[in-house]
Write a structure and sequence with these properties.
Elements (H helix, E strand, L loop, with lengths): L19 E2 L2 E14 L2 E13 L15 H4 L6
Antiparallel strand pairs: 1-2, 2-3
Amino acid sequence: MNETPDYMYTLQEYVDQPYLVDGLKFDMRVYVLVYGTDPMRVFLFNDGLARFATVPYSPTSQENASNKYMHLTNYSI
C-alpha cells in the first residue's frame, strides 16, 4: 500500500546580503526528512546540492541588475 502524506512542506530562507564563496553567490540544498515529532525523528540525506554563479557578485545596481550570471545560480542558463 502506497500512502501519500496529508501535507508536505518546503522550507527556504531569502538572505538580503548573500553569503559568498570566493566572491560568488551560491545556493545550497540539504535534504531532510522529518518522520516523527514526539520523539523528534529526522533523516538527513547523504546527498545535497550546491550551485554557484559564474560571475563575481557585487551589490545590485542599475548597471548590473540584468547580469543573470552574477545573480542566478541556476545551471541551466
